[in-house]
UniProtKB/TrEMBL annotation:
GO MF terms held by the record: carboxypeptidase activity
Protease recorded as keyword: yes
Organism whose genome encodes this protein: Pedobacter africanus
SUPFAM superfamilies reported for this sequence: Carboxypeptidase regulatory domain-like
Protein name: Carboxypeptidase regulatory-like domain-containing protein
Keywords: Carboxypeptidase, Hydrolase, Protease
InterPro entries documented for this protein: CarboxyPept-like_regulatory
Annotated Pfam families: CarboxypepD_reg (PF13620)
Amino acid sequence: MKKYLLPTLIGFIIVVTACKKSGTQGEPGVVANAVTGKVTDSKGNPLANVEVTVENQMTGNHNTRTVLTSQNGTYKIELTSVGIFQASAYIKKNYNGVEYHMPLHPDNNELFNKEGAVRNFVWKLSGAMPDNTGFYGGTCELSPDIYIVPIEDFEKVEFTLTPVGPIIDGSNGTVIKINPVRVSSYFVIRDIPIGRYFATAAYGQGTNKISLQLKKRDSNDPYALSAIINFPGSISDPIAALSYKK
């Protein structure tokens, strides 16, 4: 019997070691009757005090539980009832005097049960949400002044957004040059990282290019060759709206 003891012991050690290494180092693994995970920014830095919610979607047993992430960005929520669950996370940020409640991106958006699950979240400033339900960035609408004929060849419109100071995550942001998409009689730019921007717009090509005059839509502001964009504190798809004229 002794000759089998050493291989058995070695096999036991290998199994235990493999179990310990099954998750990413420093991140929680699957725990029965619980959902665990870690919340980070786009650079992998942990985010503390982020709301993580588990919703039981089973008919007749619907309920939610919410916790805040720890200083190292981790969380754990006990699953105290039978059901089919989904996890979500939101970060609250005050930016230029406006409070934003922003959804975070899950690494896995599938439902789970009491066997447990790991759901990690990342704060993405842009990109598509799961199941194509929207974008993490904001939207800018550019509509014509009520006294002018709308521009038809919208592909000749170039919109430039220059960050004014840091954007919502504290980074510098980048200058955005883009041709907006036409929707009915106005133009739309989607998925802009939330920030404050100096906006300009030009129409035409080559020597025929002209600057459009802009102002905040439905305001008494005068038209000018530039406008400042601020996004409202909406939970989903905040929209900044401008009017234009030639």
